[in-house]
Amino acid sequence: MFKNDLTHPISVVTCRPELAVIIPTYNEVDNVVPIITALENALVGIEWELIIVDDDSPDETAMQVRILACHNPRVRVLQRLGRRGLASACIEGMLVTTAPFLAIMDADLQHDENLLPTMLMRLKQAPLDIVIGSRYVNGGTVGEWNKQRQKMSQFASQFAHSLIHAKLHDPMSGFFMLRAEVFHLSVRKLSGVGFKLLLDLFASHPETLRFEELPYQFRTRQNGTSKLESAVLWEYLLMLLQKFTGNWLPVRFISFIFIGASGVLIHLCVLWLLYKSLATSFIVGQSVATLVAMTTNFFFNNLLTYRDMRLRGKQLIRGWFSFILACSVGAIANVGVANYLVQAHSWWMLSAIAGIIVGAVWNYAVTAVYTWNKPR
Ligand code: GDD
Ligand code: MN
Which atom of ligand 1 is nearest to the CA of 174? Predict the structure, then answer.
């Protein structure tokens, strides 16, 4: 419907509500009342709704929102089960509304809700696709961030400029408002991984987005804790890589391959230790090294590749077992294919690479279905 036409099928004038504020949450129960109150004060005179997308927070944020929604028709909750991820939560939130203007912000009051009316006004008046709350344009600040966090944000921003051509001051911002049709034009290309939705939107949109940055003061979090961990940096690098390779490799596959390569190194180290230093037989060294490498591969993949559906507790043992089983079959396929090619007089190196590719694709596909894709 939106494919070739930038005009939204729903009239901007008649559509109610006019603005949807989408807030992703994970363990933000104490911030729900304050953020709703803050929005009510800031958005007087605007037809708005709030969509909270909660990833089944253990602190029952979703239930708290539901209770408040009983008496407040502006508020809705979308509770996702067995999944994690800020960007994917925002995407799904944006998909459930009919509002022609969409705002994304955090639940923790770090973003200044008083900027929302100005953002909306700019989008309506000026030829703009997106308005971004920026900490790095004149008048904006990062508040009380420590030096390391400031450095990390600036480093990531510099990287971002090599991906998108727009000269954004704050490409890492999690606070912005855009036209719904702009979102719908790029939604199928979004990687949806990690924290960096804004960058993803710029990189995925078929045309250069017309944007404006408005300064605001990044406030200090009052309740709860930040969910930004160092694994987020890994997801960010993967997203960049996926965009650079023109979207043709799934982001998880890229991650899986990198971790597989680390497994080869680990394998060689363990083999060296056992066979060369401890003088075990080669077969013992090779078997132990294979098991160790498979195990580290499993844990790294669980932590990084499948961070959003991480296995824990009992599931971890079942997952590890299914991973070893799948990869053992993958190894047999690898050797079988390589051997077949060598016997058909292919060059040994090419045969080995073909075997490795078949094994890797098998391992990825099978573990994606059996190890990490069980409904929970
Ligand atoms: N649904 C869902 N699922 N929400 C999540 C998840 C998740 O896995 N992880 C975090 N959130 C929610 C939080 O509850 C919060 O409302 C919002 O996303 C931002 O998370 P924070 O943990 O507060 O992030 P931050 O303050 O460290 O990072 C902010 O600054 C970054 C700039 O460096 C965010 O605004 C980021 O979007 C921004 O990129
Ligand atoms: Mn925050």
Answer: 37
Does residue 289 belong to any structural domain of this protein? yes
Task: Identify whether 3 is part of a domain.
Answer: no
Residue 8 is predicted with a pLDDT of 53
Residue closest via CA to ligand 1's atom 28 equals 228
Residue 156 forms part of a structural domain: yes
Tell how strand 130-134 and strand 211-215 pair up.
Answer: parallel
Same domain, 222 and 184: yes
| Residues 276 and 318 reside in one and the same domain | yes
- Which of the listed residues 244, 276, 310 is the one where a domain comes to its end? 244
Q: How many other β-carbons are positioned within 10 Å of the β-carbon of residue 84?
A: 16
Q: What is the 3-state secondary structure (H, E, C) of 114-169?
A: HHHHHHHHHHHHCCCCEEEEECCCCCCECCCCCHHHHHHHHHHHHHHHHHCCCCCC
Q: Which two tokens stand for residue 222?
A: 């009052």
| Cα–ligand 1 centroid distance for 149 (angstroms) | 14
- The reported pTM is 0.76
Task: Check whether residue 167 and residue 54 sit in a common domain.
Answer: yes
Give the domain range for residue 305. 251-370
Residue type, 5: D
Residue 127 makes CB contacts below 8 A (sequence gap 6+) with: 210
Amino acid type, 26: Y
Instruction: Ligand 1, residue 153: give the atom nearest the CA.
Output: 33
| Closest ligand (CA of 28) | 1
Domain count, the chain: 2
Substitution site in 79, 81, 106, 145 for ligand 1 pocket (most atoms within 8 Å of beta carbon): 106
pLDDT digits (tens, 9 = 90+) for 37-90: 999 999 999 999 999 999 999 999 999 999 999 999 999 999 999 888 899 999
d(C-alpha 204, C-alpha 191), whole Å? 9
Which one of 182, 213, 244 terminates a domain?
A: 244
For residue 105, the ligand closest to its alpha carbon is: 1
CA of 228 to the centre of ligand 1 (A): 7
